[in-house]
Specification:
It is built from four helices and seven strands. It is an alpha+beta fold and about 170 residues long. It starts with a strand and ends in a 5-residue tail after the last strand.
Length: about 170
């Protein structure tokens, strides 16, 4: 299915992943796309709130980065790291049944936004994790990797966190 992206003028490619597709896709099946990737088109995605969806999102993003001809290893690594952290945070720190997101390219930046349905009073914020902490470094990694990032709440209690990764490495 295709629809309009609210942040870009090009028609977005919409991808809805089910648990079954996540399992099949992790086994090497092709991306579940109704239309082929076209350079310059944003992607909107939705998936069940499960940690098994994180690798599926990375795979989806790799396919999109290929279509955008983003070949720099450092840029790809940074984008995939930021995406992974955002999806993981939405899964772990909300009570959402569904996670949605999008990625797009504009003004020399790769943007990613992940939205949950809320269900928790906490706000995403960077915290100083101790060396012994197993978790708590996600937003610090995003802040250190991205050109910019932020969050916005919604009237339904959901939260969207976005980040922009530069296409050219920052010295």
């Amino acid at each position: 299915m295709r629809g309009k992206s609210s942040s870009a003028t090009a028609t977005a490619v919409d991808v809805t992943l089910t648990l079954q597709q996540i399992e099949e896709w992790s086994g090497g099946a092709p991306p579940p796309l109704d239309t082929p990737w076209r350079s310059g088109h944003p992607v909107a995605f939705s998936l069940p709130s499960t940690e098994r969806g994180v690798p599926a999102c990375r795979r989806l993003a790799r396919s999109w980065l290929d279509s955008e001809q983003v070949n720099g290893e450092g840029v790809r690594y940074a984008f995939l790291l930021v995406l992974s952290e955002l999806v993981t945070n939405a899964v772990r720190h909300s009570r959402s049944a569904l996670i949605t997101g999008r990625f797009w390219r504009a003004s020399g930046l790769l943007f990613v936004e992940v939205r949950d349905q809320g269900g928790t009073p906490s706000r995403p914020r960077v915290v100083a994790a101790r060396r012994s902490d197993a978790h708590g470094r996600g937003l610090a990694l995003i802040a250190a990797t991205a050109y910019a990032w932020g969050r916005r709440g919604s009237g339904d209690g959901g939260c969207a966190v976005w980040a922009a990764v530069p296409l050219t490495p920052v010295p």
